[in-house]
Amino acid sequence: MTTVQQTFEKLVSLAIQREQEAYDFYMKAAEDSELKASSKLLKDLAGQEVVHKQKLEEALKEGVCDTFTCSSVEEVEKLDLDQYLVDIPLLPSSSPQDVLIVAIKREAAANSFYKALSELTGNASHRSVFETLAKEEETHKTRLQSMYDDIFQPDM
Questions:
Q1: Phi-psi region for residue 135, left (φ > 0), alpha (ψ -120 to 50) or beta?
Q2: Domains delineated in the chain
């Protein structure tokens, strides 16, 4: 039988995987970008995703999954946290606009996921880690949104 702790370990492990995928995604987008400023921003975001992955791995090592406050696996499942960790695919033919839209959606989902985790942990230092991750993902989303507006809606 799966325990609450194992359920959270699976979620945090999936989040680590998504951070790695975000890194790969941003690095590829940076390589494909024709604009130097966009490429620099994407590489910067990629670097931050590596830091997020490290923070999550550290939290996992420090036993973060023991600090979540759900009493049953059913309670965790009702929260539907994995909805935030769905993979939003990109096609090789995706336009720069598609890439930005997907990136914005991924950051918004990561933000929601980390906010939810921060509210579920009873440990202040772990809560702080998730709150920081949530804020950083929100900042990424804002930066990407701004880049999107500059490139695709310059007259608005």
A1: alpha
A2: 4-152 (1.20.1260.10)
Q: Please, are residues 25 and 103 in contact by the beta-carbon 8 Å criterion?
A: yes
Secondary structure E strands in the chain = none
Coil, strand or helix at 16: helix
Q: At what angle do helices 96-120 and 124-152 cross, to 10 degrees?
A: 160
Facing residues of 121 across strands?
Answer: 68
- The C-alpha atoms of residue 91 and residue 99 are separated, in whole angstroms, by 9
Give pLDDT tens digits for 56-107. Answer: 999 999 999 888 888 888 988 898 888 888 777 777 677 888 888 989 999 9
Task: Give 60: exposed, middle or buried? Use CB within 10 Å, 0-12, 13-18, 19+.
Answer: middle
